[in-house]
């Protein structure tokens, strides 16, 4: 029932159209190698092939307690992290969610076609609420609807994300399909784009938990801004499993996680890394992993330092990105309001 579109345009006589990509990242805390390997790096690698919209989702960050200073500082820092990682504003629209009011307006309209029971099933809500459902914000509960609005506003075909977001993209499809069924074909049904490797980088402290910005333990993550010594220390301290062979497996979740990080940064497969470390033991492997991460983050950190020296650059690029996003969002909302019969659509 949804409007699934191909990459080659809407019909045989129309010119080919690049697939549309939308992805968002919250300006909440220190960005880590999980965000980088699971999301940002894929955005950068694919940006020439797609028509991309990348969004700093500041309104989502309000779903957990935050401060004015923390939020505004993090927005510019995240913009610089994305630019330093290779997001190119010539190829991609990069903007801040709250600069385009249509996101919240569409969120409200989509709330009206979202079922309470669907939201209650979201595992990310359960994880983040940590059993304190009565005390967390209502924003945390409706977070997936705002995310659906972000995606649907731009007629998105693909959403490159880590594995943790898969359920939210499925909900987005359901909400879009329900809206289309009630009001007529309006939204494209997006598909998640989850890479098999790097989709879920786990905590260095506890391989049963995903690496997360909001983890209270500083040793759980490697931040993109960590110094070489901090990176070496964190990887040296990362938990490993019993035994000494550098081999991945379900009985070795901690080592498997470190092997995936190595493979992704070295552009190798996990078996290739295992072969390289056959008979060498955990110590040698972890020491080399630390050097590899230091080496791969160094150019990003250098560019980041240059960008942070002149905050006006990111501020200007974000303002330009918001202008471009607003044009698309405004056109889509005109169509949506007309379908629903609000905002003047009374003819
Ligand atoms: N551990 C991870 N492994 C792979 N991908 C990950 N992502 C996040 N953690 C991992 C992906 O990064 C993108 C941006 O995520 P986000 O900031 O919007 O929110 P999140 O998924 O909630 O990330 P965090 O780090 O856990 O942040 P907090 O603690 O603030 O909630 C997404 O594509 C996500 O899949």
From TrEMBL:
E.C. numbers: 6.1.1.2
Catalytic reaction equation(s): tRNA(Trp) + L-tryptophan + ATP = L-tryptophyl-tRNA(Trp) + AMP + diphosphate + H(+)
BP terms from Gene Ontology: tryptophanyl-tRNA aminoacylation
Keyword field: Aminoacyl-tRNA synthetase, ATP-binding, Cytoplasm, Ligase, Nucleotide-binding, Protein biosynthesis
Enzyme class: ligase
Pfam families linked: tRNA-synt_1b
Subcellular location: Cytoplasm
Record's keyword annotation contains Protein biosynthesis: yes
Alphabetical list of PANTHER family matching this protein: TRYPTOPHAN--TRNA LIGASE, MITOCHONDRIAL
Family statement: Belongs to the class-I aminoacyl-tRNA synthetase family.
Quaternary structure note: Homodimer.
Protein name: Tryptophan--tRNA ligase
